[in-house]
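INTERNAL AUDIT FORM
Audit reference: QA-55
Scope: verify that the stored structure record matches its stored sequence.
Auditor: D.O.
Record contents follow.
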Amino acid sequence: MNINRKKVFNWAKAIIIIYCLIGITLYYLQGFFLFHPEKLSSDHVFRFSTPFEEVSIPVNNEDTISMIKFFPKDSLRKGVVVYYHGNMKNVERYASFAESFTKHGYEVWMEDYPGFGKSTGARTEKKLYDQALQVQKMAAAKYSSDSIIIYGKSLGTGIATYIASITTCKKLILETPYYSIPDLFNSFSLIYPASYMSEYEIPTWKFLQDVVAPVTIFHGTNDGVIFYSHASKLKKYLKPSDEFITIENGKHNNLADFETYRKKLDSLLQ
């Protein structure tokens, strides 16, 4: 009997140690799981099919915001779409989406987060907010609030919602949003207390409650990165006039392939 108890105790101890080691590893590697940047050298030459201008915004001695402004092919401008992209690579990955907006006469301003592309500096949640706000203020200096559309994709949806919650704009459009980062982590690490372990919060649900502008959300039912059920929890924070557009069979990175998405986006931009 004592031998069996000792075996049980040893097994329990081993399980606890393994659990703790995995938890510690997940905590210190969460930035690796959340962000997948691709840095570019300062002399890298961008090549895009859409007319563009590269802008470098010095913040301090360590931090610089790299941003691309995409332009309509004609000189008539309706306004600007301030586009906060996802967690992969840099603006080169998302540049092809600019044409969806420039064809309607909008400029598209797309910044890279710290450590992405040519943007420099250490990355923190506060810095994501502060630098996103700096870009929005630049847009507000050129365009009136009723000509500014804030657009967020994936990781950028929480940042976009934060900006829309503290500034005025024409519309907020979110593509594949999440409830919060801890909620997102909980999807993949059910046995760990992600709400306490997460270094990043980005509570989209909380910011959404302070957004006065009309909100449109797009999400696919087959999204394997940010599950549809998690995004659906944002519905209760939408205003009666806001929209949650479900894309049947849509995945995380292919909503632009669906006519439902394209038609609705076109109608929002006309």
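Auditor finding: record pair retrieved intact. DSSP finds eleven helices and ten strands in the chain.
Action required: none
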